[in-house]
Specification:
6% of the residues lie in helices and 44% in strands. With 193 residues, it is mainly β. The strands form 3 sheets. Strands 2, 4, 7, 8, 10, 11 and 13 form a 7-stranded mixed sheet that branches. Strands 1, 3, 5, 6, 9 and 12 form a 6-stranded mixed sheet that branches. The longest helix has 11 residues, at 2-12. The chain is elongated.
Length: 193
Amino acid sequence: LFIALFLLIASAGTASAAQWWLGNGQGVQTPLPFVPGSQDTLRLGIAGNSTAFSAVQVDFYLPTGAILMGEPYAGNITNGHQLTWRQSEDKQWMRIVLHSVKNSTMKTRKGELICIPVFWASDTKGSSCHTANSVLATPGSEAVTTTELQVSLTAKVEKKPITVNVSNTEQVHQAGNTAALTVTTLPADLKVE
C-alpha cells in the first residue's frame, strides 16, 4: 500500500497540464490580430497535453465585436467526433462539446479541436476572449487537467492606397474672408481620424 501511494504521488507531477490556444487565418500569435469588417475562423486548440483524450467540454466566451457567422465545427485532430453546441441567451459565450459514440481518442494529443466562423464588426479596435469550465476526458472518463485560455486580440489595420485631390488652391485673399479648400479622397468611404 505504501509503495502504491508513493507511485501515485510521484506520478502526479509528471503529466503536464494541457493549455488552450486560439488562432485564426493570421496564425497563432499573442495578441492575436484580426481585420475589422472581415470574415474569419477562430481556431480553438490544445497544446502541452501528454494524455490521450476522447471528449471535450468548454465554455468559450466570444471576443467583443465577433459575430457568429455559422455553426462551430470539429477541428483537424478529431476522429469522427460529433460537435454539439449551445449559445447563451446573451450571445456572449457558448458551451461546446466534442464526443464520440465509439469513445474514440483524438488523432493526436495536441492540435486544433474547434473552428468557429465569425465576422468582425468594422468598428472593433481590440478585444479579448477566454474559456471556462473546460474538461478533457480520457476514454476511461478521467479528467485531464487544463489551463484556461485568456487572450487579447488586436485589430490589424490594412493600409490601402488613397488619392487626395485638393481644389481651389489659387484664391485672391480679401480681408475678412478665409480661404476655402475642397478635399476629396478616393476611395470616398475613407474615414480620416
